[in-house]
Amino acid sequence: MLGSLPQSQGSIQSGGGVTFHDTGSTSAGFLGIFHNVPLLAAIIAFAVAQSAKVFTHYYETSMWDFSRLVGSGGMPSSHTAFVVGLTAAVGVRDGTASSVFAMCVIFSLIVMYDATGVRQHAGRQALVLNIILSEMPADHPAQECGRLRDSLGHTPRQVAVGVVLGVAVGWLVQGVALTIR
Cα separation of 66 and 132, whole Å? Predict the structure, then answer.
């Protein structure tokens, strides 16, 4: 039974010939997330990307906009940096031939496709609808909805920068964690 497996490092054989791999982690419960280096790498990559949006917005417009710290869209793609940071850290820790790395790659590709496809097109549609709303009379019932957010998706360049940022942060954070152990 799975419940009676010994808690030791290395491979554990069950009665059915299936091998389970114990990570040797002593962190259990909620506090274990603070020892999950790939998760921390992903969160750091996301925070760096969101912070960078303030500076890239200033570079493009010469205006500081600290709402970019929590906004979607813009340079770089923080969603991409987030998932690629996770993927890179898992790749360093578990190897690129692992099943977990493969799942992370697929997950990352879906997020990047969504950012450049569905979300970018939704943002373009919101922009067009906002133009239409601005030309309607103020008392028109459609005005009750208010302006739509049109900064939703990303250009391929914004996603590519998110990939580079995610790989760098994931590789660096997991690499540092492995040298500390």
Answer: 28
